[in-house]
Fold this protein.
Amino acid sequence: MMPIYQNGGFDYPVAMMLATLLGVGFGFVLERAGFGRANVLVAQFHGTDMRVLKVMFTAIATTAVGIGLLSGFGVMDVGKLVIPETFMWPQLVGGLLLGVGFVISGYCPGTAVVASASGHVDGLYTLGGVMVGSLLFGFVYPLVEGFYEAGDMGRLVFPDVLGIPWAVLALAVALMAVGSFVLAEWIERKVSAKQGIDAPSDPPRVRNRTLGALGAVAVGALVTLAVPEPEPAAPKAPELASLSAVDLARQIASEPDGVYVVDLRSPAECAKGGGVPGAMCLPADDASASFLATLPPTRPLVLVDADGAGAVPPAAGRFAGTAYRVEGGLAAFQKDVLTAPAPPTEATPEALSSYRMRAALHARFTGAAAPVDAPMPTVKPVQRAVKKGGGC
C-alpha cells in the first residue's frame, strides 16, 4: 500500500481505511496462528513450540525483501519510511521488561488485543495491566526523564550502519530466516523429545514454498543492483498561492505569531534590514532554504523576495502546511505598507475604508503617527442659470 500512497494513488482518508483493513487482517492472521492463546505464546520461551519466531521472522523477512525489491526498481522511496530514533539504554531495559511481562502474562500488547477479540479474559487482564502501567509511567516520567533519553543514536537503519544496499540486506535477512526455521525446528525436536511430548508438525511443503518465495524475491531485489539509476530530475519550483502585501500586513498585525514569514533575499542583504518586520532571513549555511521543509505545519508559510518574480525554493513545495508568496515581493510591501498612503480623491465608502486601513497599517509598521483621516473632497456648487423674463 505504501508505494501506491506515496505516488498519489489515493488520498489520506482512503489510506486510513486501507490501513484499518490491513490491521484487521493482521489480527486475523495472528489469531489463526494461535497468537490469541497464552499457552502457545509462552511455549516459545520453553522451546516446545517456536511458531512465534517463525511467524514474526517470516513477517520481518517479507518486509525486508519487499523493500529491497520495490526500492530497487524505484517504486518505493526508502527515505520516506518512518523509523523511530534509537535510544540504546532505555530500549534495552524496556525490551527486557517487555520480555518479563510477556512471560508472566503470556501476551505482548498486540497479542493481548488479539486474545481479547477472541474472547479470552486473560487478554483483557493484560490490556488492563498495560493501561495501568502506562498511566503510572506518566506519573514517574519526570524522575526517569534523563535515563529515558539516554543513549540517543539518532535514526539508525542497517543499510546505513553497515554501508550496504537494501537489496543485500534483504538477501541476508532471507538467509537468516531459513537458518532460523531450521534451528527452531531442531530445538522443538530436542526439547520435545526430552520432555516426552510430540514436537509440532509443520507441513514441509508449506514451509519450503514460503522460504523459496522469500529467497526468489530476495534474489530479484539483488538483481536490481544492476539496473542503472535514472538521472535525477531537476527540481521544479513549486506553484504557491499569492498573497497581497496588505493582506500579509493585516495578518502580522492581528496575529504576529500566526504565520512564518521568510525573506528570500541573500542572508547578507536581509541582515541589512528594510524587509518585512519579523521575517526570517535565510541561514548563511542554507542558502537553498532547505529548512522550509522541516518547519512544523502549524501556521502558514509566506515567502517574500525582492520583487515577486524570483524563483521559489523547491523545499517550499515539501512544506506540509499552506504556503504563499507575496505578490510584488518586498517592493510591493514597501509601496503598499511602509509608504504613507495618499488620501483618496473620491470620498466613496470603499475608498475611505481602504485608506483608513492602509494608514493604520503604515502607522503600525513604521511607528509614524497615524495620518489625519481622509478629508472630504471639495465639491464645487452647481451653478444654475437664472431664467430671465416670464413668470407669473
